[in-house]
Amino acid sequence: MTSIAANLQAVRARIAAACVAAGRRVESVQLLAVSKTWPAASVREAVAAGQCAFGENYVQEGVDKVAELANKGSGPRLEWHFIGPLQSNKTRPVAENFSWVHSVDRLKIAERLAAQRPPGLAPLQVCIQVNVSAEASKSGCSPEQLAVLAPAVAALPGLKLRGLMAIPEASDDMARQREQFAMLRRLRDSLALDLDTLSMGMSHDLEAAIMEGSTLLRIGTAIFGERVYA
Ligand SMILES: *Cc1c(COP(=O)(O)O)cnc(C)c1O
Hints:
single chain; alpha/beta; TIM Barrel; eight-stranded parallel sheet; 41% helix; globular; binds pyridoxal-5'-phosphate
């Protein structure tokens, strides 16, 4: 077994155990493998081990990988999620190449994605990123902005607003992790919209995220190893 296959197996076991502890069905949590900085060969290893959904952070790297791994007849269909910060001049390749965007944090970005989504494709599935820790360095809208942004995004054609995403302040304290995830869940519940997705939980805090209702985990390091940035 390759190390990526073994890591995936270990991550799936962690998810299963956390679901048991939380009294949740394991099918209620989707695993997104975050492949940023890793080559297409690593993605292929994960695909061979049964993983089909992948997350990318950087537009050009992501678009290149989507093209390199495009299905040419055989093999499973891959689902690509854009999860990184998005500038308005880079929305077009994202609208054209990805199935999901988790990092919408202002209306201008959502409007451009909506206008640029090719009509032949399914609506782009989107999450609004919320800054739950109020750290100045973090992207995401504020909880106050969310109340106005969410209905506006939900009304756009070409997009389907699915839920909320957060990257909490890093902490080894599970209580602190859970507090931030619970805040995202409460924000979702406060909106008068039918939102089925909470994109929360990474390699070091997936257990806390599952406890607080995560439906979509974004896991990089625990699957592919430590990233090295060029
Ligand atoms: C890199 C990244 C991840 C994966 O984080 P790990 O700690 O490697 O699991 C998840 N979400 C976002 C938005 C990221 O940028």
